[in-house]
């Protein structure tokens, strides 16, 4: 594929992703975060495989950067999901 085709797919994916995420009702936020965490875990596996097979140092550094950013996304997603679920728990009475 040429650069224009790849850029067009990327721009369209950004627009579709933006409108999909902002049109989600609050009740579906937690399942959406779970799917986002699953996608980020696939990105981590792909980055590990790609950086292991890379021949240059720059590719290994970019692979490490991808792993770090996806890890931050996963841990942040779990933290947000935990906070949202805590809002729905009944408080204990003493």
Explain the overall architecture.
Residues 7-90 form the NAD(P) transhydrogenase alpha subunit C-terminal domain. One of its GO terms (biological process) is NADPH regeneration. The protein is an all-alpha fold. It has a domain at 26-87. It is 81% helix and 0% strand. It is built from three helices and no strands. The protein has helices at residues 3-22, 29-53, 57-87. Helix 2 (29-53) runs antiparallel to helix 3 (57-87). The chain starts with a helix and ends in a 7-residue tail after the last helix. 2% of the residues are buried. The model has no long low-confidence stretch (mean pLDDT 78).
Strand content: under 5%
**Category from helices, strands and their pairing:** mainly alpha
Largest sheet: none
> How many β-strand stretches?
0
Query: Could you tell me how far the N terminus lies from the C terminus, measured between alpha carbons in angstroms?
Result: 65 Å
Radius of gyration: 18 Å
| Oligomeric state of this protein | single chain
SSE ordering: HHH
Shape: flat
Task: Give the averaged pLDDT, no decimals.
Answer: 78
Number of helices: 3
Assign a percent range to the helix content.
over 70%
Task: List low-pLDDT spans.
Answer: none
Please write out the topology.
Elements: H1 3-22, H2 29-53, H3 57-87
Helix pairs in contact: 2-3
């Amino acid at each position: 594929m040429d650069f224009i085709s790849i850029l067009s797919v990327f721009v369209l994916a950004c627009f579709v992703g933006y409108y999909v995420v902002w049109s989600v009702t609050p009740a579906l936020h937690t399942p959406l975060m779970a799917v986002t965490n699953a996608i980020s875990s696939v990105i981590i596996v792909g980055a590990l495989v790609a950086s292991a097979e890379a021949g240059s140092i720059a590719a290994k550094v970019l692979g490490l950067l991808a792993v770090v950013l996806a890890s931050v996304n996963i841990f942040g997603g779990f933290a947000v999901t935990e906070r949202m679920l805590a809002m729905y728990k009944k408080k204990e009475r003493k």
